[in-house]
Specification:
Pathway: Lipid metabolism. The chain has 276 residues and is an alpha+beta fold. It has one domain: Gcn5-related N-acetyltransferase (GNAT) (Aminopeptidase, 3-Layer(aba) Sandwich), CATH 3.40.630.30. It contains six helices and ten strands, in the order E-H-E-E-H-E-E-H-E-H-E-H-E-E-E-H. Strands 1, 2, 3, 5, 6, 8, 9 and 10 form an eight-stranded mixed β-sheet that branches. It has a two-stranded antiparallel sheet with strand order 4-7. It is globular.
Length: 276
């Protein structure tokens, strides 16, 4: 693992400042912001295996216990797969309890080359994105504890990813954004219809699902609102790379999402990357 910020040093302390010279950390809730104290968080990259395992336990709690995913793991009560050893793991802690309440994992280009593939390739043909690989970060397994889903934790995680992109000169962010299929897929199909109207990537950046969700056989006319994570990606300036894939183990539809740093919404570029 490379030289990354220490887990005792909140990553927002080292984020670039914006146009007005204010650190991105100042945007996070503080106890003095209101009469009712908001949770305080620290954000850092795991440097030890025990910290990685904390993230894996949170992932298991969210994906297996809460969502009912059938995880291919050999470690009880932990979500572990072959990519974890090659990834850097971003964790958010609740400063009151010191428990990990949010996590992302990041697979940088040189580690993707070592393992020989991206996680997304198990679900999509990515041939049209090959030219992006040398400076592309794949992210995934993002989750937030059910008691901390007000938005502050995911903002903290995105701030950490923004610092990572800047630190290593990366130009794009790729990840699978999951949508539940508890209704048989109609919600996901209606989301795709909505994305097709306004949020699809240019055709040269399309990916092709290996097990596509049969949107043509589903109801695409529902008035739906995207999940908070996808909505956030789109606000950042991300695009959807085509039809969703069906992941039977997680029983979700996965939308491949691509964010080019140069296409990032200027407001968020200033906030997370310190860019003008």
């Amino acid at each position: 693992m490379r030289d990354l910020p220490t887990p005792t040093q909140p990553i927002f302390d080292s984020l670039p400042t914006g146009q007005n010279g204010h650190s991105a950390r100042r945007r996070l809730p503080r106890q003095s912001d209101s009469t009712h104290a908001a949770p305080a968080f620290s954000v850092a990259w795991a440097r030890h295996q025990d910290e990685v395992e904390e993230a894996q336990r949170l992932r298991y709690k969210v994906f297996a216990e809460e969502m009912g995913a059938r995880l291919q793991t050999t470690t009880p009560d932990m979500d572990v797969d072959m990519f974890d050893a090659y990834c850097d793991h971003l964790i958010v802690r609740d400063q009151e309890t010191l428990k990990v309440v949010g996590t992302y994992r990041a697979l940088p280009p040189h580690q993707a080359k070592r393992i020989g593939c991206l996680y997304a390739e198990s679900e999509f043909d990515l041939v049209r994105l090959n030219h992006l690989r040398p400076k592309m970060l794949e992210v995934g397994r993002s989750c937030v504890h059910r008691d901390f889903r007000s938005g502050s934790v995911i903002m903290a995680l995105w701030g950490g990813l923004g610092e990572y992109l800047q630190k290593y000169g990366l130009e794009s962010l790729l990840g699978c954004a999951s949508v539940p299929m508890s209704d048989g897929g109609h919600y996901a199909a209606s989301l795709y219809r909505q994305f097709a109207e306004s949020s699809l990537a240019p055709i040269e950046y399309h990916a092709f699902p290996r097990v596509p969700l049969p949107v043509e056989d589903l109801n695409q006319t529902l008035e739906v609102d995207p999940p908070a994570l996808i909505k956030g990606y789109l606000r950042l300036g991300a695009k959807i790379c085509g039809l969703p894939a069906w992941d039977p183990d997680f029983n979700v539809a996965d939308f491949l999402t691509l964010l080019r740093v140069r296409d990032m919404n200027p407001r968020y570029a200033r906030h997370f990357l310190g860019l003008k």
